[in-house]
Design brief:
Blueprint (H helix, E strand, L loop, with lengths): L11 E2 L11 E4 L2 E7 L6 E9 L2 E5 L6 H12 L7 E5 L5 H4 L2 H8 L2 E5 H12 L6 H10 L4 H10 L2 H5 L8 E3 L4 E4 L2 E8 L6 E6 L4 E5 L21 H13 L6 E4 L5 E2 L1 H25 L6 H8 L6 H20 L4 E4 L5 E4 L1
Parallel strand pairs: 5-6, 6-7, 7-8, 12-13
Antiparallel strand pairs: 1-14, 2-3, 3-4, 4-5, 9-10, 10-11, 11-12, 13-14, 15-16
Length: 349
């Protein structure tokens, strides 16, 4: 049977390469790409400057360390010398996105816009409250089988979040799903997504077929989707997969500006691949549970999801992600979950 419809376009990465340190690249009319370093395996984050009549709106801020601030000092003298930052938008609270927000806002005397969920989470993470403390994380991971030496390493590194976000904003302009934010003289719609962070805000400019995606839609890797202590029985995998439908509704030729990796076109094939990726991982987990001689902890099942050696930072994220995928199987009736008298949690087919 022959179809008259044209084939769906494949994902196409845009741009020959990222901007050099201290420089920008105009990736769309009035939208400039900056890249900042990160002090871990995922070694960069993309930031976006949108031209305004008297300056710029900055989307995301980079990790709050000396290396990133040295890059910002270069931009102060060049990129921003004649067109300063008039407003900051933070897609979410993770350190590579929010780390320099308060510092930049003080330098330029400008406001910070973000969702309330991300604003409150940032403060809870810095203060170690409301189930966001490091002791809470270690207690959760211990229940899911993390070895004592890894728990000790997590304890020794202290509040890693606070090192990347030295100060959270003390006031903010609230973004709500469906809001319209004017940037560059054009309306952008706020699209809230879940699973990666509490209330992640992407921004879509329908008129220009352009989207600043944050971490919700990346071209080469799947964003971290994890369970954390404040919601230990949650199903962030389901929330993440449900959130992807919002992006599928955007125009097929939308230029996606992600936080990691190059800009790209092809939302539909990327979303399809992300759905397939998680389905494959879930099937592999279910088969591993069925083959195991006894119920498994999340720590024991990590090698099914991550087939490489993990450093401490990667293991931290891997534990949260393993729990998330096991919880999803349990919530969907594809696995059983048991809780021992000592609180240890295990899963079986």
């Amino acid at each position: 049977m022959t179809s008259n419809s044209s084939p769906e376009p494949a994902l196409r990465e845009v741009a020959d390469g990222p901007p050099a340190p201290g420089q920008t690249l105009e990736i769309a009319p009035g939208v400039h790409w900056l890249r900042m370093p990160l002090p871990f395996a995922l070694n960069h984050v993309n930031l976006w400057l949108v031209e305004e009549r008297d300056g710029h709106t900055l989307v995301d801020c980079g990790y709050g360390d000396a290396a990133t601030r040295a890059h910002w000092q270069q931009h102060f003298a060049t990129t921003l010398a004649d067109r300063p930052i008039r407003r900051i938008v933070a897609t979410h609270c993770h350190p590579d996105h929010l780390g320099n927000a308060a510092w930049l806002a003080a330098h330029f005397d400008c406001a910070i816009a973000m969702t309330q969920g991300e604003y409150l989470a940032a403060h809870a993470l810095i203060e170690g409250q409301a189930g966001f403390g490091q002791a809470d994380v270690r207690a959760l991971f211990a229940r899911h089988g993390m070895a004592g030496e890894h728990l000790a390493s997590l304890a020794a590194r202290g509040n890693h979040y606070h090192r990347g976000v030295p100060e959270a904003p003390h006031a903010f302009m609230r973004l709500i799903d469906g809001d319209t934010v004017t940037m560059g003289g054009r309306p952008w719609q706020v699209i809230v997504g879940y699973g990666h962070s509490p209330e992640h805000a992407a921004l879509a400019d329908a008129a220009g077929a352009l989207m600043i995606a944050g971490d919700m839609l990346l071209p080469r890797i799947s964003t971290n989707v994890a369970v954390w202590p404040g919601e230990p029985d949650g199903d962030p995998v389901a929330r993440f997969l449900d959130s992807l439908a919002r992006f599928e509704a955007l125009p097929a030729d939308t230029l996606v500006l992600p936080s990691h990796g190059p800009p790209f076109r092809g939302i539909a094939p990327r979303v399809r691949r992300l759905r397939a990726h998680h389905a494959e991982r879930l099937d592999e987990l279910q088969h591993a549970l069925a083959a195991a001689p006894r119920p498994q902890s999340a720590a024991e099942i990590i090698p099914v999801l991550f087939r490489r050696e993990l450093d401490l930072q990667q293991r931290f994220f891997a534990m949260g992600e393993a729990i998330a995928h096991l919880n999803h199987l349990w919530r969907r009736g594809r696995a059983q979950r048991s809780v021992a008298t000592d609180g240890a949690i295990r899963y079986a087919a």
